[in-house]
Amino acid sequence: MSNGKFKSAERERVPDPVSESRLAQLRDEAERRGIVTGTGVKPAGAPFPRASEETGYYGVHLLKQPQWTWEIPLYFFVGGASGASAVIGAMADWIGDDYELAKHARWVATAGSGVSSALLVSDLGRPARFLNMLRIIKPQSAMSVGAWTLAAFGSFTAASTFAKLVQERWDFLPVKIVANLAQFASAVSGLPFHNYTGVLIGATVIPAWNKNIETLPIHFGMSGVQSACSILELLGHDNNTALNILGLLASAWETYEGVHLETRAERELRPLKRGASGWVTRAGGVLSGPLPLALRLACLFSDSKKLRQAAAISGIAGSVLTRYGWMAAGRASARDWKLPLEIPDTETRETKPLMETVVEKISAEKVG
Amino acid sequence: MSTTTGFFTDSTLCIGCKACEVACKEWNDVGADGLNWTGFSYDNTGAVGHSTWRHVKFVENQTQPGLGGNAADHMSWEFSSDICKHCELAGCLEACPTGAIVRTEFGSVYVQPDVCNGCSYCVVGCPFGVVQKNENDGRAFKCTFCYDRQRAGMEPACAKACPTKSIMFGPLDELRLQAQTRLDDLHARGMTDANIYDPQHTNVKGTHAIFLLRGSEKAYNLPPNPEVPTKYLKKGWTASAIGSAMLVAGAALAFLVGGRS
Question: In angstroms, rounded to a whole number, what is the distance separating the alpha carbons of residues B223 and B85?
Answer without folding.
Answer: 12
